[in-house]
Amino acid sequence: MKTEQVRGGTHTSNIPASVFAMPPGMRMRYDAPAPALAECVTAYAVYAHDGSIPAVNWFMPAPPMISVVVDAGPLCVSIRNTRFGPLSRASLYGPTSRAFCAETNGGIMVGVGVSAIGWARLARRMASDLHNRVVPLASVFGAGLSNRLTDGLDALHDDADIKPLLDDLLAPLLARPHPDEPLIRRFSVLMLQDGVVESGDAATRLDIPTHALRRLSQRHFGMTPKLLLRRARFLRSFLALMRTGEPADYSVIDGSYFDVPHFLRDAETFLGTTPRRFLQNANRFLHASIVARAAVLGAATHALHDVASPGRAPTSPAAKRTNSPSSPAPTPAP
């Protein structure tokens, strides 16, 4: 699949082409998986760059993602002070609690977002083993899946063919339900609600012991319930700030924050800097991908995807503000 040969990357069905507008030489596309995979796969994403100038693209903290590159130069990923790469053609990005950047040198990157239910069905190991790590896909899921993905994508000539290929490859691997799925669904919904930030409160609402919630969270989500709930609260608040176009409008942040310094401490944890500085450093790619993802999938970021109602935005007040695709992403404030 040659970068310059690929067609059909400007829009998906019923989505205005303007949602996917990118600078010259860059392209993106989002697709929802087949309905049978909707609880397991949060999105298919395609990012392409012509390679004339190396690019640094920022990503939000997120659940696991399978990444395959096609006709690409060396790709490296940095998660805070740890650098991974050059990466294998097929890699697995583990669950992250920190923003990370990818240094690309042209080519196409195809991403498959994996939900906690998807992880439960697909993986034998603890998701927490890969917290804030990037590893070869074959080291976790075997060379068979890695080879089928790379060979299949190499044979394509149109972005629109990526979704059917991935649906066909993943369907048999994600067919068997896991016994923990009812609890995973309930905990996933709980994470999208304003004000739920304590693991003890979450365990009470789920009617399970705290230690059972901790085991479930680390096994399928990749981190402790407290960190997971804090990440969700921060991302809801941060994306709401982005929608206002004013990174200092703290009136939109989650009501469970005691004060602004409390929110800014979370910003340091999850972004490594203040929201204003992060938005100054993040290039157009991050802003464009947030708008495009919200338009196609309902949630502006992978970590806030509603697995209980795939394709629909979460229903909490902050999530409604965050996920509305009706207005463009703001330009970073000076």
Automatic annotation (TrEMBL):
Among the Pfam families in the record, one is HTH_18
Superkingdom of the organism of origin: Bacteria
User: For the HTH araC/xylS-type domain, which residue ranges apply?
Assistant: 181-281
Q: Which residues form a coiled coil?
A: none
InterPro entries the record matches: HTH_AraC
Disordered: annotated span: 307-334
User: Which GO molecular function terms does the record list?
Assistant: DNA-binding transcription factor activity; sequence-specific DNA binding
Designated name of the protein: Helix-turn-helix domain-containing protein
What organism is this sequence from?
Sphingomonas gellani
